[in-house]
Amino acid sequence: MRRFFRPLPLAIGSGVALLLYALVGFFLLPYLITTYAVPKVAETIRHPVAVREVAVNPFELSLRITGLEIRESDQTPMVGFEEFFVNFQAVSLFRLAYVFDAIRLTMPYVAAKVAPNGHLNVLDLVPQGAPDDQLPPAKAQEHPGAIPAVQIGVFEITQGIVEFRDESKPKPVAIDIVPIGIVLRNFHTKPGGDNTYSFSAELGKGEVLDWKGTITLEPIRSEGALVLSGVRIPTIFQYVQGQFNFDIPTGTIDAKVPYRLDMGVAPMDCIVSEASLHLSDVGLVEKGSVDPVISVPSFRIDGIQVDLRQHTVSIASVGLADASDRVWLNPDKSLNLQALFAPAESGPVAEKAPPKTTPKESAKESSPWSVAVKDVQIKNHTIRFEDRSLPSTMQAKVVVRSARSHDLAWPIKGPIPLTVDQTINDTGTFALDGQMVVSPFQADFTLALKNLGLAPFEPYLEQATRVGIDDGSLDVDGSFHLAVEHPKAPLMTFRGNLGVKSLALVNREEGLPVVSWKHLLLKQIALTVDPTTVSLAEVGLDQLRVQLAVQSDGTMNLAHLVKAQKETEVKSAPAPEPPPGKSKPAPDIAIKTVKLTNGAVIFQDDSISPTVRTGLEELSGTVKGLSSKQVAKADVDLSGKLGRVAPLRVVGKINPLSENAFTDISVKFDNIDLTTAGPYSGKYVGYPIRKGKLFLDLAYKLSQHELEAENKVLIDQLGFGEKTESPDATSLPVPLVVALLKDRKGQIAIDLPVRGNLKDPDFKYGKLLLNTVLNLLGKAVTSPFALIGSLVGGSGEELQAIEFAPGRSDLSAVETKKLMTLVTVLTERPALSLDVTGMADTHVDARVLAEDQFLERLRRFKLEETGKPAGKEPAPVLSPEDESRLTTAWYAKQFPPVAGPPDVPPLSVHEMKGRLLQTIAVDEGQLRLLAQRRAEGIREWLTQQGKIEEARVFILEAGFKDGSGTTVSAALAMAAR
C-alpha cells in the first residue's frame, strides 16, 4: 500500500482512473444512450425516435444531444429539437442543491395535429399504464414534500417552433408559432432568489408575444409584463370561428399587461396596473362574404387597473375611432346584426354539472366585482343603415363625429352622462347632451337636430301612398325628459321647437306637385305624456302651396295618393276594446297662435276643355287662442285673393279642439270673376259665361251640434255666350232662371239658409245645400211668379193671369192693380219679357156675345120701325117694353104660329129670347177677336200706363177653352229677353 501511495504509482493510478473516467464519459455514456436508452424510449412511447448525435463531457459535466426526432408512424417528424445542452456543476455536492450552469434547447419543434375524430397526436407519446382494474390501490395522499433546491444560471430556449393543425373543425385550423424564445436567468427554487425570465414568440411575421419579469417559486410570486405586438386576430380567431356566424379576416392586437402576483397570501393577490389593449384594422364579415359588416380601424382601452383581492377594475379611457358599420333590416324585419352575433348552430352539448365550490370560494363570489371607467369616447364612427323590408330600400348614413361619456361605474348607481355629435346623410346634424339613470330608467337630454333631409325617407311612404318627397328638411331642438316611475309627474315631457323647411311633396308616379311650403315652424312646444297635454306658442306656416287637380278621368289627384288595400293583404287584427270603466280624459291642447303667411291653393281641372285653372293666393292671417277647453274661443282673421283679384276675408270665432265644437264665423268673397268658370257653364249649363262677378257672404254658427248657416250669394252682370251642344247640359231654361233672378241693376241675390243637427245621421250639409239650390231652380222653372213674389210682398201666383168679364175685353180695377204690380216686377227684372196669351171661352164668352148680337138686332128692328137708316143714327136705347115688344115680334116672324092643341099655354118673353139666342151663331173668329182684344188691352195698359217697353211684351196666339166660370183668364208667362 505504501508503494501505491508513492508518487509514481499514485500518478499512474490517477491517470488510469482519469482515463477510465474520460472513456466512460466521452464514449461509453453516449453509446449507451444511443444504443439502449433511445430504443427503450421508442418502445415505451411506441413511436420512432431518432438521434443524430449524443456527446458527454465528463470534465464539464455537460450533456449535448443533437438531431432528436420523435416521428409519426409514417416517419413524419412530430416532436424534436436540433440541440439540447445541459451543464451540471459539481458544486451541487457542496451546496446541497441541483446547480446548473446552463440549460439550452435549440430549435425545438412540436407538430401537434388534431385528427378529424378529435384525437391529439402528441397524447400518444404518454406511456400507457395498466388497465384500471389492474391498477394497485391508491395510497392515501401524503403531505407534499418541499420543493427541491434547484439553481439554474441560464435556461434558454431559442428558435422554437410549434405547428398546430386541427382537422376536426369544419374548416381546418393551422397555427404556426415561430420562433419561440425563452430565457430564464439566475433561477432559484428557494426563497430569496432574483429569478428573471423572458419569453418571446412569433405567431407570424411581426406577431410577437413577449413576457418578461421575475418569479419565485416558494412562495410563488411573480412580477412582470406580458406584451402582445402586432398579433393578427385571424390567427387566434380561426380556432373558434366555428362557434360564430362571422369571420374576422383582418385585425391586429397590441396589448401590454404589467402585473404583480403573490400566491403566498390568502386570498391570492394579483394586481394589474396600467395595462392597455389596442385593436387595429379589425373587420367582421358574414361567412362567405368579403365586404366587412363592421370595420374597426382603432379601438383602445388604456389605463386598465385590476385588483383581484378587492374585485375592482378601473379603466382610464376607452376609445373607438374611424369605425364603420353596415346595418340593414331584412325583408322579415330582422336585423342583420341579430343573425351575425347569434350563436352558431352546433350539435347537442352535454350539460355540465355545476362546479362544486368551497365555503371560501362561496364567500369570495359573494363579493361582487366593481368596474369604473373614467372616459369613453367614440370618434368618426360611420353607420350605414338600409331598410330592405320596404318596396324600395331606404338608405341612411350616420356619422358619429363624437360621442363621449365619463365616470361610469358598474354596478350602476348614479346617472350616466352622454354627449353625442353626429351627422345624418351628410347634411343633417344631431347633437345630444344630458344624462340617464338605468334603474328606474330616467333620461334627461337636450337635443338639436338640424337640416335633416327628408327625401331619403320617402320609401316609408311607398307602402301606403304614392307620395314622393322632392325636397324638405327637419329641424328639432329642445329638452327631453323620460321617467318610467313618475307618481307625481308625467311619463315624458318635451319642450322645444320643431320646423320643416322647403318641403315639396309630389305624386311619385306622375311627378306632379301636391303640397309644398317654405317653412313650417312649431314654436315653444310643451308636450307631456301620461297625462297628455300639448301647448304651442305659435304654429307658423309660410308660403303653403296646395295643388288640387281634377284629372282627365274626373277623379281628384289627392284621391290617388293613398293606395287601396289589396284583397290579398292580410288585414291587421282589430285593436282590443278597452275594458269598461272610466275612460281616459281627452288631451289638453292649447295653441296660442296659428299664423299663415302668403299661402296658396291652386286648382286645375283637366277633365274639361278648355282646362280650368284658378286658385286662392296671398292667403295670410292668424288664428289666436285655440284650446281644447270648452269655454275657450279662438279668434280667426284670414284674408286672401281668388285669382289674384277677388279678395277673401274670414273673420270670427272657433273652437274645433273642444268636445263640443263651436263656430261663429263669416266668410266673404268679393269680385270673383265668373269667366273662369266658363268651361263648366258651357258643359253643364249649356251656355258659356262671358261676363259676371260673384260675391259670397257666408255665416256659420255651430253650438251644441246645432248648425245655422247663412249663404248669401250675389252675382253681378251675369252674361252668357252662344248656346253649346253639350250632352251634359241641364234641361232647365237657364236664360229664364237668370232673368227671373237678375234685378234691374243686373244683380242676382240668393239667400240659402241651412239648419240642422250634426248628430242627426240624416243631416248632410253639402247634400242639404245642394237640395236647397235645386229647389230654388225648380221653383224658378215651374212657378216663376211665385219666385218673384218676394219683390211685391205676396205669393206672386195671382200675377200669372188677368181676369175678364165674359164677353168683355175691358180691365177691371182689380186687374188693373195686378198689372201695376206686374209693372213693378218687370221694372225690377229688366231681363224678363212678358208673354200674353189672350183667351176666349167657347161657352161663357159665346153666350155673352150671342146676347150682344140679340140686343143689336133689337136695336136695328127699332130703327126700322122709325124709318131711320141703320148705321147713320146712334143706336137707340131699348126700354123694357121695347125689348118685350120687339122680342115677341121677332119670335113671331122667326117662328110662325102653328095650330096646336088649344090647351098649350103661350111662351113667355124670356122663353122666346132663349129660343132666339139659339138661332144666333157665334163663330171662332168672333171669339178669337175677343181674345186678341183682351191681350191687346193688357199690352196697351203695360206699355202706356205702365211705361214698359213694347219690345218686352209679346202677344201670343189666342187660345180657347170651355169653362163655366164667372170670368175668363188671359194667361201671362215670363220669358227671358
Automatic annotation (TrEMBL):
Pfam families the record matches: DUF748
Organism: Nitrospira lenta
Transmembrane helix recorded as keyword: yes
Keyword terms, alphabetized: Membrane, Transmembrane, Transmembrane helix
GO BP annotations, alphabetical order: regulation of protein targeting to membrane
GO cellular component: plasma membrane
Name of the featured protein: DUF748 domain-containing protein
Residues covered by region (Disordered): 346-367, 567-587
Membrane-traversing stretches: 12-33
